[in-house]
Write a structure and sequence with these properties.
alpha+beta, Elongation Factor Tu (Ef-tu), domain 3, five-stranded antiparallel beta sheet, conserved putative lor/sdh protein from methanococcus maripaludis s2 fold, 251 residues
Length: 251
């Protein structure tokens, strides 16, 4: 009886040792799986929205590679820190200055105007386009805005005196249009402007003053230099109508 009891005790200890070894192995496997999972989690250095995904399931990313994007997983942007790149004609560039207020419009949100200010004037002009580029910070961005969207900017004189953005009637860049391009109804002046995609038209309200002659009107606000407009709009033209530009006429 004593020998049988001792034998069962040894067998029990052996089974316990096996179970303990299995538990230790399972813990090691769990730690390895948790480490692999942690290594597969990619954390962005800053908060933002993914602009472009540069990786796909099954693909490889390596730090040491000749390809510049070999280690890039995604491009992100901060929707609260957007800026616009705006090309200004050289003949108007002398009026630019840091801190200058700007109204920014985009075709995506055509009914809304964003407030902005000039933060940088680049050091080199574009010889082919005869323009100088400026960087404009959007002060009140919308979540729908995305990088590389087409936009237009309307520049105003930098305010003096009290703080805040103040738009001066005489501070904008001078712009003239043929009188036949300006429609007047119920005391309001409007112009048919070609949309950013150059495929549609939109009716925008403008403020006008007497121009350089009887055939032209000075546009005080509502348009910016470079905006394409319909010079002789037909009466059946409607907002959103599709168009095809057959001739560009410089005024």
């Amino acid at each position: 009886m004593v020998l049988a009891a001792g034998s069962r005790r040894e067998q029990g200890q052996a089974r316990l040792s096996v179970r303990q070894a299995m538990v230790a192995h399972a813990r090691n496997e769990l730690a390895r799986a948790q480490l692999n999972l942690e290594r597969m989690r990619i954390r962005a250095p800053v908060s933002g929205v993914i602009q472009r995904l540069m990786a796909a399931p099954g693909g490889k990313k390596m730090l040491a590679s000749d390809m510049t994007d070999s280690h890039v997983v995604a491009l992100i942007f901060d929707p609260e820190k957007l800026q616009a790149r705006i090309d200004v004609p050289l003949e108007e560039a002398s009026k630019l200055e840091i801190g200058q207020p700007v109204k920014v419009r985009t075709g995506l949100l055509s009914q809304r105007t964003f407030e902005g200010e000039v933060t940088r004037i680049v050091g080199e002009a574009d010889l082919q386009r005869n323009t100088l580029q400026v960087k404009v910070r959007i002060l009140d961005p919308d979540p729908a805005l995305r990088p590389d969207m087409l936009c237009r900017g309307e520049f105003f004189a930098k305010p003096t005196g009290s703080s805040g953005v103040q738009h001066s009637e005489g501070g904008g860049l001078d712009l003239f249009l043929p009188a036949k391009a300006v429609l007047t109804q119920d005391g309001q002046s409007r112009v048919w402007r070609v949309s950013a995609d150059r495929k549609h038209v939109e009716l925008v309200e403008v403020k006008v003053m007497e121009g350089r002659d009887t055939n032209h009107l000075r546009i005080v606000s509502g348009l910016v230099p470079g905006d394409p407009v319909v010079l002789d709009p037909p009466p059946e033209l409607k907002a959103g109508s599709r168009i095809r530009i057959i001739q560009n006429q410089k005024l």
